[in-house]
Write a structure and sequence with these properties.
- The protein is an alpha/beta fold.
- 54% of the residues lie in helices and 12% in strands.
- Helix 4 packs antiparallel against helix 5 and helix 4 packs across helix 7.
- The structure holds P1-(5'-adenosyl)P5-(5'-thymidyl)pentaphosphate.
Length: 211
């Protein structure tokens, strides 16, 4: 019997396989009768999805880095209070497609916003909330973008340069090296079955021994 929900986030650049990995994790938890919700950032609430629409809109090319960061954290504040904390408190696991690591990677390293400002916002909206596990799906920028662009027309972020995504990836890898206990790095260029096996192994470590 599980009493406390676990908070798992999925990170990586465009096309790394976060959505695919999250769907696999959801199947895995379902098979083990572990209650969970799946959600995403930006998004997850009515407010968050409206903010997501603005953030991804390719027509919003004049958006400043500061406006972008504050919109993301406004959505995150709502998401944490309305969805994530209540779900965890009720004993559900939370599978979340992106969280604050993305802000350090995209707005910090990618856009050049001072990382201390991001940390200030993170402390404000998260307080003691941190993911129990973050799966970083790592892929070279060119390969990730190829996958993402095969799927749909580029949104405002996907229209960025390879250099931008290389910077974003570099920051994700730095975070993974710095927080190795929380962040499990997965080679997302591997065949899907092997990626899924690595995801399963990481999640298994969070399960109580009788599960
Ligand atoms: N953002 C977000 C910020 O800037 N700051 C923040 O703080 C936050 C929270 C939206 C944008 O918001 C920005 C970053 C983003 O640009 P998003 O919706 O998560 O974020 O957007 P994407 O990263 O664009 O999501 P994608 O759906 O494009 O990428 P995924 O989810 O990583 O990739 P996925 O699973 O859809 O897979 C892509 C394709 O690859 C295949 C899949 O079948 C699919 O076709 N694939 C594989 N192929 C071969 N081998 C494998 N191992 C494969 N795994 C997946």
């Amino acid at each position: 019997m599980i009493h406390t929900g676990k908070f798992i986030t999925f990170e990586g650049i465009e096309g790394a396989g976060k959505t695919t990995g999250l769907a696999y994790a959801a199947d895995y938890l379902t098979q083990r009768n572990i209650p969970f919700i799946q959600t995403r950032e930006p998004g997850g609430t009515r407010l968050g999805e409206a903010v997501r629409h603005i953030l991804l809109d390719a027509a919003q090319h004049q958006m400043t880095s500061e406006a972008e960061l504050l919109l993301i954290f406004a959505a995150r504040a709502q998401h944490i209070q309305q969805i994530i904390r209540p779900a965890l408190a009720a004993g559900n696991w939370v599978l979340c497609d992106r969280f604050t690591d993305a802000s350090y990677a995209y707005q910090g390293r990618g856009r050049g916003v001072d990382q201390q400002r991001i940390a200030l916002l993170a402390n404000w909206v998260q307080q003691d909330l941190m993911p129990d596990l973050t799966l970083l799906l790592d892929i070279p920028a060119k390969q990730g973008l190829q996958r993402a662009r095969q799927r749909s027309a580029p949104d405002r972020f996907e229209s960025e340069t390879i250099d931008f995504f290389t910077q974003v990836r570099t920051e994700y890898l730095r975070l993974a090296a710095h927080e190795a206990d929380r962040i499990t790095q997965v080679d997302a260029t591997l065949p899907l079955s092997q990626v899924q096996q690595l995801i399963q192994q990481a999640i298994q470590r969070l399960l109580p021994h009788d599960n």
